[in-house]
Every structure is written in C-alpha cells, then in structure tokens.
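Quarterly update from the structural biology core.
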Amino acid sequence: MTAIGERLPRKEDSRLLRGLGRFCDDQDRAGQVWMRVVRSPIAHGRLVSVRKPGNAASGSVVTAEDLPPGVRIPVRLNVQGIDLTDHLQPVLAAGEVRYVGEPVAVVIADDPYEAEDIAERVEVEIDELPVTVDTAAGTLAAEFELGYGDVASAFAQAAHVVGIEFDIGRHSAVPLEPRALLADVDPATGALQIFGMTKVPVFNRDVLAGMLGIDEHLIHVHAMDTGGGFGVRGEFYPEDFLVGWLARKLRRPVKWVEDRAEHLVAVNHSRQQHHVISAAFDENGTLLGLKDDVLHDNGAYARTHGIIVPELTLAMLPGPYRVPAFHGRIRVMLTNKTPCGTYRAPGRFEGTSVREQLFDVAADRMGVDRVELRRRNLLTADELPHTRAMSTLGTDVVLDSGDYVGLLDKAVVEADRLGYQSQLESLRARGHTAGLGVAVFLEKSGLGPQETADVVVGTSGEVRVHSGGTSLGQGIETVLAQVTADALTVDPAVVTVVNGDTVLQPFGGGSWASRSTVVGGSAVHKAALAVRERAIQLAARMLEVSEDDLDVTAGAIGVKGAPGTSVSYAEVAKAARPGSPHLRDDEPAGLSARRRFEVEHMTYPYGVHFALVDVDTGTGHVKVLRYLVAYEVGRAINPTLVEGQLLGGVAQGVGGALLEEFRYDDAGQPQAVTFMDYRMPTAAELPHVDILVAQDAPAPGNPLGVKGAGEGGVTAAGASIAGAIRDALSLTGPVGRLPMTAERVRGLIEEGT
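Predicted structure, tokenized:
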C-alpha cells in the first residue's frame, strides 16, 4: 500500500464545500466587544491630537498614550546583520504618521456597527509634512551587496555587454478572506485563547507574549481555516497586539475583522523595485558576468520581514544559469507608502522578470535564438550540486539536484506538441499582433531551521497528526495524511491532521517559504516511521515472535508467511496503555512519537514558462491566450494538488504582469483603494494553462525527495508575459516595467521602440 503519488481528493473539502469550515469570523464569544481601527488619512504629518466623540463611552477610544511605552512590531527574519530598530513600526502612531492607513487609534464597542460609527467620528488632527513617494528620494534604511567572482574582469573582456532598466510595480495578495482576530480571555488569569493567527502561530504567540510581558504558555493559538495566505496573511501586524492587549485589559473577548478597504492600505504590500542590470557575454553568447543595482521601495517602515525580499532578489538573481561572476547591490528605501513584506515568490518574481527580459534583449542583439541562449548558459546536471558564495535566509546557496537543460527541452517539446508555435504563426497570418514568451527560473523551498510533528495512534486505530504547519488553502492536511499513511501502511482516511495549534504542537515553524511539505512532511514522515517501529516492537511481544519476523501490510502487523497471525494498530495501541503486560515499567505509555526534522540547506525547484499573447494595438489590451508551466518538484505527494498550486500561481502572476498595481499621487494618497481601481484578473482574463509536472530530480536533502510547489506558478509569469509582449511588438529594447497595463502598452506602440 502506498499513498504517496496518489491523486487523492482533498480531506479539507468535505467540510469546506459543505460550509462547515472553521474561519475566524465564524467565532464569537459571549460578552465580546468589537474593535475598529482609526487610520491616518494623511501620508505624512505630525500627529497633534486624537479626540473621541463627545458621546463615546469612557475608554472606548485607545491611543498610543494608553499603550505600554515603546511597543513596536519586531522583525521576524533579520538578515545581513543590519539593525532596523529605528525603522520598526509602532503599534499605534505616536507623534508622527508616515502613510495613509497607519493605525492612530482603536475604538471598542459592543456592536461592530457602533464601533465603526464611533471610529468615523474620531477627530484626528495632523499637521502635514513633506511627502516622499519617489523611491530614489526616500530614506535609506539599509544597503548591502551580494556576489562572487571578478565581475570587473568579466565585463572588461566581454565581446557583448547588454544592459537594461526595469521596474516592477507595487502590488500585493488579496486573499478571499481578509484578516480577522478574536481573543478570548480568562478573567481570572488573563490567559488568552487566540483565533485567526495563521502562517506562523508559534512565532506570533511568542512575540505577543513578549510584548505583553507574560509567559507564552498563557497564550493558546488555535488552528483555523484560512481563505488564502500568499505571504501577507498571518504575519504579526499592529492589530495582533491590540486585540490581545485589549482583551487582557478589559477582561472581555475582543474581536476585529478587517474590511476590504482596510486590507488594500494596511496589509503588507510588495514587489516595488527599480533595476539597472547588465550582462557580459563572450563572442559565442556564453555568459561571463552579471550585475544589478536595485532600488527597493519598502514603504514607511520595516515590518516583520525586514529586508528579506531585497536579499532574496539578489541571492536568487543568477537563477539556474552558469554565472561565473555576479555582483548585486541593493538600497532599501523608506517612503510614505504602506509598508512592504513578502508576497508569493518574493524576490524571485522580481528578479526573474528582470533577468529574463535582459536575456531576451541580449539574444536579439547578438542574433541568437532566445531558447538557445538560455540552453547555452544553463547549468548542466553534471554541474550540480552547485555552490554560490552567497547566503540567503541564513543559509548558504547550494543548488541541489536538477537537470535544467533537460526540463527546458521537455518544455519546448511539450509547447510544440500542444501547438503554441503553430497557433502563433496562424494568429500572425491573420493579422494579429501576437507574441510568444519564454522564461526559465529557479525557485527555493524547504527553509528550516526545523519543523516538529507528532503522530499518535489511538485505541480505535485512528491516527492523529499534530503538525507545526498551518492550513492556508494549500491542502496540507491531505498531503501530511498521505505521508503518514504511506509510512504506517494505513488508509489515509483514518488519518486526521491538525495544523497550527500551539498547544497540540508548541514547537511548529509554520507554513511559509514553500516549506510545508518539504520540512513539515519530513518531520511527519520521521514521526510516523518511529510509531511504526514502536508498533512492531510491541506487536512482537504480543505475538511472541522476533521483530524481524514481522511485516506491516494494510494497517496490520503480521507474521511473515503466516496469514491471519497479526494484530492491528488499534490492538497495539491498547497494549501500549499503562498497566499493560506488554509494556515495560521504564517505557512511556501510548503509541506515539514526536520528531523534529532539521534543515541546513534549502532545496531548489525550477521550471519553464511559456506565454502566448495577443495584443490589441488600438486599445493596448493584452490577452493571454495560452500558458504552459513545466516544473520540477522532485516528488509529487499528490499531483493534483501540485497542479492546483501552479494554476493558482499563474492566476496571480497574470494579475501582477498586466493589471494589479498600487499607485500614489504626489500627496501620498493611494489611488487603488477599491476593486474599481485595484484590478485583478477574473476567469475571463485567465488563459488555459497547460502543466507539465516533472519528478526527475528528487531532492537529496529530505527523506521524501520533495521540492516545494507553492510558488512555481507565479515566479516566471511576469517574465514570460513581458517576453511575449516584447515579441508581439517586435521591440528592440525591454518593455520597461510591470504591470504592462493597456496604457503602458499603448505607450510602447506609440514610441515604436
């Protein structure tokens, strides 16, 4: 019996499709009060006063003066040894506001509508100060370099040097479910039950405990369903402190639910970068060196992600290519905009878009086919593993297993088989302005340092898994059930997975950075194997045979060659109860195991994207007609879920490539605060997506051989669509920026470049 590799239906769907999901907004407690956030309407100014309405109840409006002094949102991922203390965001603004949407006060009321009504009548007096929306004119928060090799020599001896400038626009995730929090409190002890903290519940629990000055064991973060995460949902925001602090102060449950208008100005933004990038090639088109100078707009503060996005941008910029010398410099600038963090494929979407556009321009200028230029410069299978003298996320960059050239060739064959090139030729013959884009990319996944999991077998035979991961919609319950079932040789139907509960699993690392299956699955695998070994040990005593004489098949432990002579896991679990004659005095009771899986190096999946587009030269509208993703995952625990992740990634990638952007006017006022202005793709804008999932290069760094699949659908979407537009318009230079809105496409057509 094997469960790994099977296309099993999602275990989550039985409740979600029947409306039985357990989301935060579904939770209510007797006597709860509602919190509403009063946000700055001004991008930059001196906060003079916050006055509550005359009829507001005493204590119903809370400002920074009411909070413990100096409470700020800490950085979760501190990289490059750069001190960001001076740039951390206060929980509530005190003295100065720095972006539209910054929390300046909170209102408490017995009814959510009453809370909103009071919040609208709170008077906030702000003396306006000069506003900075131009990234280059911002405040320098951090500057660092990454690289290796002799870049100056590489460029000095190059036969061809090609450079471009490229901008990635500011956009972010828009999950189906906005943020929500409920804190229930024990009036006697002040212990908190927290609902709605997702992604990294153990980290958030510890941060909240530290900020409240209490022991972390007084906080129980409960596992919840979540309508999407994508990097932005579940980080520690000001509201995460305020809800818990108010619950303890009032000794009453406190609930807050973000509305969509709040989300668009308050949740972490991402992406905004300006690149000046160049590559050096020899006379044969072989890459000699690569360098990039990047301006990264981080908004008004450094929030929980610190400067990890710009670090990832540089560390992953060489991609899957053979780059003998590389230098990247990045300047992280603060402006009067919403602070930034991660969004699905952080740094890799940006870097891949820029690098692949550079390669398209270089191929044209050198008279080399675009695919051939990439094939010529990809690392070969014989060159892997490949170490680069750089680190990111605290780990050295060591590219593990792979066959980059082989996957590119497979993708080309698949695109030809599916008729991408022939459809392009047909469109052009009929007078369409059509183009085909190609992009090759490298991803990263499986970040450590560890994940912990418990596997417990009950006396009914039910298997329970307590994982440190969190359910963000990615199907982790199904995947971990399959991993457990495979190790124990049981039906996945008997396995129940609970993620993100800090009491059941107090040592979890959370779900982020495409780590759930790689690290969390490996921890579950280790724990399940330990349970299997323990079950065999106890079964040997029950059956009075040697452990070597036993085998596990279909959930039963039996004597080899003796059909019918076996015991079930349920029977073994009963034999493991205290007082059992099969249990020794020095042995722990129960059939369970807790195991930790530790990671020193990440694993690096990779892929190829093809995009076929049709450009309306009159309106500038770009229609993505077809899309192909070829992606190497090492081993697919559930191929259907892998495909689903890739499909969803493409959808978000199309949005970032063509539609979604947060713009600001000169006064720092956001110009996209509703879905009228922040445009996302609907089913009408999304193409048919073809998927080729490869399992040719199992990861050597984990027992399952898996590589993360969560971000491969979005990583190269900007790159491939930009390349397709460039091909359609026969540009000699780059498209210049993303998203390629209709207005910008019309500009390119009118420029005729």
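Residues 24-130+178-226+233-266 form a domain with the Aldehyde Oxidoreductase; domain 3 fold (CATH 3.90.1170.50).
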